[in-house]
Amino acid sequence: MALSATELEQALGYRFADSSLLAHALVHRSYSKDFPEAESNERLEYLGDAVLGWVVADFTYRDPERFPEGRLTDIRKTVVNTNALAAVARRIGLGDHLALGDAEAANGGRDKTSILSDALEAVFGAVYLDGGTDSAKKVVLHLLTDEIADAIAGRAQFDYKTLLQEWLAQNDQGRPRYEHREFGPAHEPTFVVTLAIGGLVVCEASGGSKKAAEQNAAELAFKKLNA
């Protein structure tokens, strides 16, 4: 059963003064195509992405003992990524509230990683507009406490292979193909992966294992396609 709007606010740890902002944050572009009078959440997502980045950067900067300079960027990248945000969105039942077009809803859009992460960023943008910087900071830190703790402990990892595969599927680009080559001595080999999409080579990357090399190649390809 879907949470009510009030229960969703409880999960966010924030009560909106202007409930229309929360409703707007939940409108996916597929719904706007079916109902042009309903503006999509894309502008709020853009704002929320900036709010999220600022909150995490500000939080980590102010605690130099736990967040030394050399780890600031890595920790921020670990917390502010599609998989982590989608996991948070699933935890609070955000997908049940999304306004999706019929085709997207039938396609499992309520549980798609990219849609969930974008919607959560839109919610952050809505909180910022409704309550200002203090409210936005409280909501972001309230929801991302576990992710920040995992980043500190080094438990969180990017899964760029999954991200890339989902992006390709959503954009009808087929599946990635990984070809491996091995170099160096048997006790300390280096693996080089060539990643191709639709028969075209996109990038190459190396790693100390096949898995690591594939992840590195997927990261390069995902960032290149989303640049």
Largest sheet: 3 strands, antiparallel
Structural class: mainly alpha
* CATH level-1 class of the largest domain: Mainly Alpha
Q: Would you tell me which CATH topology of the largest domain applies?
A: Ribonuclease iii, N-terminal Endonuclease Domain, Chain A
Q: Into which percent range does the helicity of residues fall?
A: 55-70%
* Low-confidence sequence ranges: none
Distance between the ends: 38 Å
Strand content: 5-15%
- The assigned CATH architecture of the largest domain is Orthogonal Bundle
Number of domains: 2
CATH superfamily annotation of the largest domain: Ribonuclease III domain
Task: Please count the helical segments.
Answer: 11
- Roughly what is the average pLDDT, rounded to an integer? 87
- In the sheet with the most strands, the strands line up as 1-2-3
Number of strands: 3
List the secondary-structure elements in sequence, H or E. Answer: HHHHHHHHHHEEEH
Describe the global form: flat
Radius of gyration: 19 Å
What do these coordinates show?
The chain has 227 residues and is mainly α. The chain has two domains: 5-153, Orthogonal Bundle (Ribonuclease iii, N-terminal Endonuclease Domain, Chain A), CATH 1.10.1520; 160-225, Double Stranded RNA Binding Domain (2-Layer Sandwich), CATH 3.30.160.20. The protein is built from eleven helices and three strands; from the N terminus they run ααααααααααβββα. The chain has helices at residues 5-12, 19-25, 29-34, 42-61, 72-79, 82-91, 102-106, 113-143, 145-153, 160-170, 210-225, and strands at 176-183, 190-197, 200-207. A three-stranded antiparallel beta sheet has the order 1-2-3. A hairpin with a 6-residue loop joins strand 1 and strand 2. Helix 2 (19-25) packs across helix 8. The longest helix is centred in the middle third of the chain and has 31 residues, at 113-143.
